[in-house]
Every structure is written in structure tokens, then in C-alpha cells.
Amino acid sequence: MLRTWLRCCCVLRPRAQKTFIYTKCGVTTMVGAPPRSVVKPLPNVGRCDHTYLYHIMKNYRHLPPLLVFVKDTDSIHQAAMARPAREFMHSALRSGFACGQWPDEWYSIWHESAALLRLSKSDYNSTWTQARYGPLGAGGSRRSTFKSRSQNFGVWVQRLEAELEWLNVHRRSLTTARLWPVCYGAVFAATRAAISNVPYEVWHALESKLKRGDNIEESHFMERLWAVLLSPRLSGREEEELSCSSTALQIYAHGMLGTLQQCDCTQSCAAAGWQ
Predict the structure, then answer these.
(1) In DSSP terms, which residues pair with 23 in a beta bridge?
(2) Are 143 and 213 in contact (CB under 8 A)?
């Protein structure tokens, strides 16, 4: 279960300033942890997305130049392959954000927002819940319903925009972007500049929303929000070029909804007049 972050830490040493290991099962020590590691137990809420938000919020004023976020398993519900750690970290240094998983040739990181924002999950595999591990403070879970109060992902985002003025003023309305990048798998790297471009109040609000319980719909929404918040927004022309390169759209309602598929720039874009 820990092999992913161990591999990553081996690549980072000795340049890594510090490694933070957050546990949500009551563990306070970690055998084999890299040097200069900090092991911190947290309440078992919000899955890895809450953990990342917590770390950003608590260290917002003292972030290193590059942060690598890795969960304790490389399980991913997408046909994808892990990118070499050095490659995706260097990519993040160039652009501000990079995903640790790269979709296979059939899929793309780009999603039609109109379809993606219709995402709604009624439940998630209950075997992943950890309420059986005891009270909340010992790594157990806050018992709660999976379904959020929002009808779908789009409604959840609209409520964020209404609550957080920055999303409209400085990022423009998220829901007006035609294409969204999505990083599945919860392994990614981001620069201090990219994270700091998003105000502390936004990270704090998101972290608070993921405290509702362990197995909650909001964590799936947050998984689809990381790349949008941390990546530069595409121009209108770039969106047109990417859209015309795709010959299919993922319509599976409970997974990678809205994913651009079967991209072929040489044929479909030429037919649309793009050179």
C-alpha cells in the first residue's frame, strides 16, 4: 500500500526539504519512513483530498517551491500509466501543475465541462469506508451519508462560486470554461506559485467542506477540481483545437464523465480548418 510514496520519496532524496505522512487509521509511527519525515494522525474524513487541503491550509505561508502529493495506493479507475516521478515533477516546475498518472492513448486529461459538471454519484463502494476502526479521533470515521446536498458536481461548483468571490473575479467563472483538465488518481505535483495563486480562504473553505465524513461525494468532486484550480486556463482557440481533435466523448455517468477520447489532431482538426 505504501510503495507509491516510498518510490517517490526515494527519487526526491536528498533534495526533499521534508516529507509529511498523514495517517487516518490511528497510526502515529511509520516503519521505513524517509529521513526528515513528519508523521501526523488526522481524523478519518474526506479521504486523501481532505488531507492535501489540510496540508496546504496549515502550511500556506511556508510552502516549498514544489510539492508532490501522493496517496498510499496507486489504484485508479482509469486506463492510465504512472509517469516517471522526475518527469512529472519537472513538468510541474515548467507549468505549475502536473499529474502523476497519464491516460492511455484512448483517453485524454481534457473533459467537456458541460458533461463533466453533470456528474452525480449516489453511492461508492462501502468496503472502503473505515468506520469500523473506531472513534473519529483514533482514525475512525464520522458516520454520514455518501450523497452531498448538491444535485450534481455543477451545482456544487456553482455554490462554491457564490460563496467565494475570487473564483469569479480572478479565475472567471469555472462553469464557463469549455474544457477542464482532470487528474485522476490523486497523485500530482504543484508549485508554490500555483498554490499561492489561489487565496488561503479558498483552500480553507474546500477543506471545511470535506470534513463531513469519510466516504462522501464531495471528495470525488474535489478530485476533479485540483487541476482546474492549479493549471493555467486555456485560451478560446486552444479549447477549439482540443475539442476538434476528439472523435468521441465518455458518457459513463459514474466515472470519467465528459472525457475527450480518440484524439486525432491530424484528421479531425484538419477537417475543421485547423492547421
Answers:
(1) 41
(2) yes
**How many other CB atoms are there within 10 angstroms of residue 59's CB atom?**
15
* Structural domain harbouring 10: 3-103+131-167+179-233
Whether this model's pTM surpasses 0.90: no
Number of domains in the chain: 1
Q: What is the mean pLDDT of each run of 10 residues along the chain (275 residues)?
A: 51 68 86 83 94 98 95 71 85 94 80 90 59 45 76 93 86 82 92 97 96 92 95 86 70 71 56 41
- The whole-angstrom separation of Cα 131 and Cα 114 is 35
Q: Quickly count: other Cβ atoms within 10 Å of residue 141's Cβ.
A: 21
